[in-house]
């Protein structure tokens, strides 16, 4: 099985920014733990702060991987284009959020991606990614 994780803007700063919301672990250290836990699965990782690069990655892998876990960050709430890219690919996509977006600012309560995703997982910290992978693995 081959899973692609895509992180959007500012998620390269995990472990450094707003620790009270996002925790103090970098994504890279968490990714090492995920890869150990799922040693029989290929987990690819991509992060970009640029909307078009995220769309290009979805197009690149969306017909070949078995599933995609995406945390589009703030683009979740603003990008019709990423939502359209998800709608246009074959791989199932699960939207994840580290924080519980529904306990935050009102604008974060609306996702422009969710309608095109298999599901949404939010509020479980970095464990949101593991929960998404579990769903992709176990269907």
Explain how this protein is built.
Belongs to the type-II 3-dehydroquinase family. Pathway: Metabolic intermediate biosynthesis; chorismate biosynthesis; chorismate from D-erythrose 4-phosphate and phosphoenolpyruvate: step 3/7. One of its GO terms (molecular function) is 3-dehydroquinate dehydratase activity. The chain is α/β, with parallel strands linked by helices and 139 residues long. The chain has a single domain, classed as Rossmann fold, CATH 3.40.50. Helix content is 33%, strand content 19%. The chain has helices at 19-22, 27-37, 51-61, 80-87, 127-138; strands at residues 2-7, 42-47, 67-71, 93-97, 119-122. Strands 2-1-3-4-5 form a five-stranded parallel β-sheet, with helices on both faces. The longest helix has 12 residues, at 127-138. 29% of the residues are buried.
What topology does this entry show?
Elements: E1 2-7, H1 19-22, H2 27-37, E2 42-47, H3 51-61, E3 67-71, H4 80-87, E4 93-97, E5 119-122, H5 127-138
Parallel strand pairs: 1-2, 1-3, 3-4, 4-5
Helix pairs in contact: 3-4
């Amino acid at each position: 099985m081959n899973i692609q994780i895509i992180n959007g803007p500012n998620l390269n700063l995990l472990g450094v920014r707003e620790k009270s919301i996002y925790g103090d672990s970098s994504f890279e250290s968490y990714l090492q733990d995920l890869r150990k836990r799922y040693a029989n699965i290929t987990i690819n990782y991509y992060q970009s702060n640029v909307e078009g690069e995220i769309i290009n990655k979805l197009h690149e892998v969306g017909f070949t991987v078995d599933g995609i876990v995406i945390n589009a960050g703030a683009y979740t709430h603003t990008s019709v284009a990423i939502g359209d890219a998800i709608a246009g690919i074959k791989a199932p996509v699960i939207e994840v959020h580290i924080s519980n977006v529904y306990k935050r600012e009102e604008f974060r309560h609306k996702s422009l991606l969710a309608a095109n995703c298999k599901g949404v997982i939010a509020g479980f910290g970095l464990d949101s990614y593991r929960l998404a992978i579990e769903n992709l693995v176990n269907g």
